[in-house]
Amino acid sequence: MTDNELIWRIAGGSGDGIDSTSQNFAKALMWSGLNVFTHRHYPSRIRGGHTYVEVRAKDEPVQSRGDGYNFLLALGDSFARNPQEEAYYGKEELKPLYENFDDLREGGVLLYDEGLLDEEDVDEIGLEEAAEENNWHVVPMDLRGIAKEHGREIMRNTAGIGATAAILDISTDEFEKLIKQNMSGDMQEANLNVLEDAYEAASELDIDHDIEVPEGSHDEEQVILSGSNAISYGAIDEGCRFISGYPMTPWTDVFTIMSQHLPEFGGISEQVEDEIAAAALALGASHAGVKAMSGSSGGGFALMSEPLGLAEMTETPIVLVEAMRAGPSTGMPTKPEQADLEHVLYTSQGDSHRVVFAPAGAEEAYRQTRRAFQIAYEYQIPSIVLYDQKNGGELQNVPASVFDEEPNPDLGSVVTEAELADAPHDASGKYNRFQHDVEDGVSPRSIPGQEGGRYLATGNEHMPAGHISEDPDNRVSQVDRRTQKMEAIRADLDTDEGTNAHYGPADAQYGIMTFGSQQGTVEEAVDELNDRGHSVKSLGVSELAPYPVEEVTEFIESVDEVLVVEMNASAQFRGLTQKELGRFGEKLSSLLKYNGNPFEPAEIVDGFVTSIVEDGTLPGHETKFVPAASD
Amino acid sequence: MSAFSAIGEDDERDRNEYTPGLEPQPTWCPGCGDFGVLKALKGAAAELGLSPEEMLVSTGIGCSGKLNSYFDSYGFHTIHGRSLPIARAAKLSNPGLTVIAAGGDGDGYGIGGNHFMHTARENHDMTYIVFNNEIFGLTKGQTSPTSPKGHKSKTQPHGSAKDPIRPLSLSLNAGASYIARTAAVNPNQAKDIIVEAIEHDGFSHVDFLTQCPTWNKDAKQYVPYIDVNDSEDYEFDNTSRSEASDMMFETENALHEGTVLTGRYYVDDRPSYQQEKQRIGEIPDEPLAERYFDDDYEWERVYDTFLDKHK
Lengths: 631, 311
Known about the structure:
- The structure holds two protein chains of two kinds.
- The longest helix of chain A has 23 residues, at 472-494.
- Chain A folds into four domains: 6-205, Pyruvate-ferredoxin Oxidoreductase, domain 3 (3-Layer(aba) Sandwich), CATH 3.40.920; 224-403, Rossmann fold; 417-494, no CATH class; 501-626, Rossmann fold, CATH 3.40.50.920.
- In chain A, helix 10 (252-261) links the parallel strand 8 (242-245) and strand 9.
- In chain A, the strands form four sheets. Chain A has a seven-stranded mixed beta sheet with strand order 9-8-10-11-13-12-19, sandwiched between helices. In chain A, strands 2-3-1-4-5-6 form a six-stranded mixed beta sheet.
- By secondary structure, chain A is an alpha/beta fold.
- Chain A is globular and about 90 Å long.
- Chain B is α/β, with parallel strands linked by helices.
- Chain B is 32% helix and 15% strand.
- Chain B contains eleven helices and eight strands.
- In chain B, strands 2-1-3-4-6-5-8-7 form an eight-stranded mixed beta sheet, sandwiched between helices.
- In chain B, helix 6 (167-174) packs antiparallel against helix 8.
- In chain B, 55% of the residues are buried.
- The mean pLDDT of chain B is 95.
- The interface between A and B is large, with 77 and 66 residues.
């Protein structure tokens, strides 16, 4: 079988430069005209520990990791510990090699650095047998030796790229261009020499394999970036100039990107003592008239429950981002999961209201983050952008024109001093900032420092000017008004086109639903299923609160059965859908995965075929049906 | 032109300008020390000529949290322990505002202790008044972080086994640059200290002894008090860190032996956080909040600035 796509996996130790090498590789392939998508797997460690990144490249659009991979560049873990074979965590040095055996496709290429990985050791892990069984092309090369000849050992990554290019018969032009762009002087020269030498050495080996790297071209200029980039850029273009946070994986990416760019734009970034303070600072900045955000991952977001509720009660706009990772508690810090959905929907006491977006890829992340700010500031409510370690970190190319949008610094529902002069005030002269009967439940706010705008913001129930009150009539009016905003937001969001992603033939017999980061993978599975003669379409829901009840109802009503795909063990998205719709319990079943790795398209294809078409026996133990398909 | 015309020149002010015209009226118990804080703050604001609308008073939860209900300015009645992070962000966003944070001893030294420590460390240009009555009042008399060792309450039936927090020493070690203690029974000193605290460029911490006549009847009324800056019995240089430290330690011990010492304990002119952050280019010259009302401001966008690095 000929593979008409390349899925190149570079494996090594944490700290070996695997991430940056893969980014360069992906960028060079994008320059060559291909569409690229990366998938990261890394441990929660600074130095050492097996890490890999996959770069998938196709001439067609690509929105997901693939099924396995077909080219391994194993560099070895130069920071390996646990030398004993019997060690609980296994022989680390060799992990970049043997831990990747499972997913390498039949007929794939396995290039490893024999300069670091001992031949004797390699014999022991059964490479020869595995290679024979799977028809792999094993290519040992002394990449470290080539690197040391011209420069430093770390340049073995460059040697690996040179050898990869030769084996796959792709030009080194783009790689050379990148080296020239990123480096100068001796560094540049040494890397160029390493690249060339490795290319030549690998060319001489004359490896015969079936991987055909396609050729492609782009209609318009592309950029390569991650979901974390896109969220940050959406915030910046929407006029956000204040961020406060505390480091936590994987949210740290957004915090870092914002902190690096905000000072250039006269903005403020604050790294603070904890996540309670982080959310509270964003609230304080917003209260004072600045567009502000904060964020965290599960455990840190738990600390934000309190300020989140305060934002709801005081109707102070705020945007929080939540980067999910596998939980509960510390869980698996560097592994993706979608199990914080209920956490962000329901945390904080009382009848609380918030808006939750869950973008799928980079383009959605940019647009929906902007929308999150618009809704937050217009309706004076917290907006949450929910994503995860997967779509936060994976890189993909999107047209540069996606970002060619006007900036929008609009503060939303605020009054000016001129408007305050005619606005209603209470008997004490305070501005009625929380009026009862207002359109869409939104009562415009004043900003401290404005003449005639003073009022009290309080987490207690309050009268129109903010005075604390437990009067029953006022209580009901204020609760109703705050609740009413959710209906207005739903109607507002309904005017948007295509926020929730419909994919596949409109008249399909079956449906697959998912949310957030799994959307691209589900869509690839839908293509495959239709190619195989099944009739399937999908819906990727991005607006989780207020829930798009009508749109989802129509989707479910239009098909016989729906498989709901999500990365958690408790079927939270299916639960939300049933709660919001109040029916369809019989029609929905779940395909779940929670082993720390995102779905591959084939797992969804298999899941669909076995649950909907066949008897419900899944081939592997990586995914699970709920309810069990035999029920 | 500023979008915030309340911020600006100091005018002649009367202390009654900060009293709500009709309501709410204070609901504190008769004889409560909190009245003393309200009065001192009104006096200080008037003396400084501050407009009620250039002031933001951020409070926590408890009897003390009601301060901004009865002080007529912009107010943010936050949640227990969180008045400081909200206040300091407001100040960073609009440095023209006069920002006061206030809360009780449980609020500031207990649940919000981490924020207290870090706000002091960072030396934000604002004033923090802690109503210290050595008790939880609004929840009806539980032992608080400043209650003396052995303090009996319904939640500490055998008397507290804990030594109380040392608020002044804690503040000094955390990094506050103006530290004072005053008492509700000492209105003139209290007003003067709050004036100094507001004028100080940096984090001013005022530990304000506020007697609780309802739940802490056995405790002292904080009289007679002694001003350590005026008394001949106490001599120290409050710009010297080590002398300030000794004086604070003595003051904290004395309180539990029945001697109420007050005064200005430490004054340091190190740069405020705003100044430090501006020096490294991480805070804009013009107040950030003004920009959103400036129709002529050219807002930057990613497409024109650094998107190229992804190409």
